[in-house]
Amino acid sequence: MLVKQIRSSTTFAVIVVCVAVFTDIFLYGLVVPMLPFALAERVGLTDADIQRWNSILLASYGASIMLGSLLFGWMGDRTRTKQLPFLLGVGVMGGATLLFSLTSSLTLILLARILQGCSTAIVFTIGFSLMLDTVGEQYIGRAIGFTSMSLSVGLFAGPIVGGLLYDLAGYFAVFVPAFVLVVLEFVLRVLLITPSHEIDVKQDLSDEEGRPLMSDVAGTPITGSPRKPALLYLICMPRFLVAMVGMFMLNSFMTALEAVLPVYLPEVFPYRSTDIAIVFLSNTLPMICSPLGGFVVDRLGPFWPEILGFALITPSLMLLSLILEPTEVMSVLLRLFLFLFGCGVSLAMPAMMTEITLAKDDMEKGRPGIFGDGGASSQAYGLSNAAFAAGTLVGPLYAGYIREALSWATMAISLGTFSALMMILAISFTPMKRSSATARSNSQII
Fold this sequence. Notes:
- One of its GO terms (molecular function) is transmembrane transporter activity.
- By secondary structure, the chain is an all-alpha fold.
- The protein is 77% helix and 0% strand.
- The protein has 18 helices and no strands.
- α6 (106-133) packs antiparallel against α16 (377-405) and α7 packs antiparallel against α13 (290-300).
C-alpha cells in the first residue's frame, strides 16, 4: 500500500517528469558541441556546408516537436490514462538514440533528430499535463520551476558530457550515458501510476453541482463537448497567445546560440569541442536556479518575473555583438553576457509556462465546461510546446542565416531587439496582479 501511494503521489509524478525532461534535453544537447566536428569527420561535409546542416539538424528537431506537440496534446486530453503514450515516448527516444549512434548517413541522422523531437513533444505535452493533474494551482510555479531546472541541467550537462567524451573517447562513447538514461527513464515511467480522466470528470461534476446548465453566459457551465475545438478557444485569447510568443522567443534565443556558438567561437578563439562545452556552462548554470524563479512566480504571479527576465535577456544578447577579437577580455565578457542571459531565462521561463496554465484556467473558470469533459490541459501545453518548438525551428535557421549573410554583431543585436519587443508584449497583456485562486496558500511548499 505504501509503495502504491508513493507511485501515485504528486512528488513522484514531479520527479518522473523532471527526469523525463532532463533525459530528453540531455540527449538533445549531448551532440550539440561535437555535431559540427562529427559532420566533418564522420559524414564528410565540407566546411562550407557545416553551418547550414548544423542549423538544419537543430531546426528539424524543433519542427518535429512543433507538429508532435499538437498531435500528442490532442491525444492526451482524449485518453483515459496518459500512461501508454507517456511510455511510447521512451521507445521513440531509445530508437532515435540508437539510430543516431550507429549511422554515418546524413539522411538517417536527420531522421534520428526528428524522432528525438517526437519524444520531446510527448514529454512536454503529456508529461507536463500528467504532472499538473496532480499539482494544485497554488504550486504550479514551483512544479514548473523544478521541471525548468531539469531542462536547464540537461542543457548544461548534455554539451559538457558530450564535448568531453567526444574529445577523450570518440564518437560512440558519447552515447553510453544516453542509453543508461533511456533505461532509467523507462523504469520510472513504468512505476508511475497516472490519474485517469474519469476520476477527474467526477470530481469536476461534484464541484459544479447545483449550477444551471447553460452555455452562452459567462461564468455558467457548458456540458458535453465544446462547441469549438479547445485549440481555437485558446489561440483566440490574447493573454494565452502572448505567453505562447514568450515561449517561442525564449527557445529561439537559446537554440540560436546553440546553433551559432559552436561554429563561430572556433573562428574567433582557439577552441575545441571541450572548450565550447565549457562556454555553454556560463548560460546554463544560472538556469539551475529556475525553482527559485518558480517560487517567485507563486508569490508574485508571472508578471514581474517575466519583465525582469526579458530585461536581463535584452542587453545580454545585444552585448554579445562585442565579441569579435580573441582576447582574454573578450573571453571573460562572453561568459558574463551568457551568464546574464541564463539568469533572465531562469526567471522568464517558469513565469511564461505558469501563465499558460493560468490563462487556460481563467478561461475555464469564466465559462465552466468550455473545453468539454476531457479539459484542455494537454492541448494547452501542446500549443505552448509547439510555440517553444517553433523557436527550435526558427532560432537556428535565423541566427545561422543572419550571421553568414550579414554579421555576428547584426545577429546578436537583432535577437536583443526581439527580446525588447517581447517585454513590451508582456507588459501589455500579462495581468500584473494574481487572481485570488492562484494566490491561495502561497506560503505552502510542495
